[in-house]
Amino acid sequence: MKNDRVPEFAVVGHPNEGKSSVLSTLAEDDSVRISPMPGETRECQSFPVTIDGQEIIRFIDTPGFQNPRKTLQWMQNYTGKDETLIRDFIEAHKNDTDFHDDCRLLQPLLEGAGIIFVVDGSRPLRNMDKAEMEILRLTGCPRMAIINCKEEEAAWLGKWQREFRKHFNSIRLFNSCQATYRERIELLESLKSIDQDLQPVLDRVVTAFEQDWLERNNQVVKLLIDFLEEGLGYSHSISFKAGADEEALQTRLYEQYVQFIRTREKKSQERMRALYKHNIFNLDLPPQSILKEDLFSEKTWEFLGLNSSQLIMAGALSGAAVGAGADLVAGGLSVGAFAVVGGLVGAVGTALKGKKFLSGTRLLGMRLDKQLLYVGPVKNIQLLFVLLDRQLLFYKHIINWAHGRRDYDRQISHQDESPVKSGYTSEWNRDDRMICESFFRSLQNPEKEDKKDVYTKFSSLLQRTLQKISLE
Ligand SMILES: Nc1nc2c(ncn2[C@@H]2O[C@H](COP(=O)(O)OP(=O)(O)OP(=O)(O)O)[C@@H](O)[C@H]2O)c(=O)[nH]1
Ligand SMILES: [Mg+2]
After folding, report:
1. Going by CA atoms, what residue is nearest to atom 11 of ligand 1?
2. Do 199 and 192 meet the contact criterion of CB atoms below 8 Å apart?
3. Is 152 in the pocket of ligand 1 (CB under 6 A)?
4. CATH of 8-209, one of 3.40.50.880, 3.40.50.300, 3.90.180.10, 3.20.20.300
């Protein structure tokens, strides 16, 4: 592999070991075909990784070995030069259907690709595997081995590792269904050790991956701020005719708002998904995920956002609905903590009593002035923290969903049912919460606040949090 070329790696191995899954995760490409049936990949396919429109590395999916023992035998009896071994093997077998897959998988090596050999380390080592490793050694190409355990079985790992040491320059455990961003970077780092010539170019690739990740986090920050501005700064007025049914109107307006914020939240999650290149498959949330709860469910408000004393402080400082905190303290955490109106809270609050989540204090400000009913902006600061927690948990879910994973096989349960906060915002320190309060205040009084400073601090708080979640 020359220095000025885009580095290229062929992912090879026995059928059905997880080659395509590893590739899909490494390249963050969910269009790679994966199947429980062996023999899914029959032809080589190249998957480039591009950053800012520039191809920086390329992985090639290949079919599994079809006839490793006979291939090895042929290679061991070969009397030509080492450099022509692969070419002559392909030439000798190109019309033999028994060696179709072997010829295909060796072709990229002829064109200068490095080797990533994938095995399922949860099964025992067989002679067939030794034959495959020996073939790869005879090719003389730079190579690393990846142990991708399909089952949680570690009994065979030692044996695999001992055998690998004889044949490969580098060995790594990498789970195609669970690998995180950090593990992808580490794998690329270890590719450097398989060939000195690769080091400078792979250094550039790793730096590009890291910068790209930071840039995507920046995009998430922008996306979150847009979402919060729209969702919390929501405000408009409608005409109100004397004698009209105020209560019905307020209820309708409240419901409109709830619909609006739910749709907007979904939209920003879709954008986040696209940023992390999850385009095709469903990324099922674990069955007990708090994110499966409705935004306005009691459980959501119990588990996410600030705790009651943090909330009282936040309300006091930002001039937001302090009552929410007081209610939570007085009535335990059973109250939904929102209501429809601001100025008219008394009347409507009473009228709506019994309707589970329309009681308590203010969520959305509403003010009647002559012929106009003013709606918004949001009054309850807890909504800021709940929305943020939901987005941050969604972010965590997205970035930790490996592209090679196609279903939710491990159930992560929320066993702790006590009202302990499980989001990120309640872990923020006082200074961080104050940054949020200033941001919230600036949405309530857009013309009064010095927005620039507030936004800079809020952005950097979000950026720091995303970075921390990326490394968890
Ligand atoms: N649980 C689990 N399943 C995995 C893992 N890696 C792959 N699989 C599953 O194993 C099966 C085979 O995966 P593929 O990636 O298609 O394997 P392959 O080596 O490309 O197979 P061929 O193209 O047929 O040679 C699929 O059902 C994958 O979902 C893993 O780490 N954990
Ligand atoms: Mg495959």
Report:
1. 36
2. yes
3. no
4. 3.40.50.300
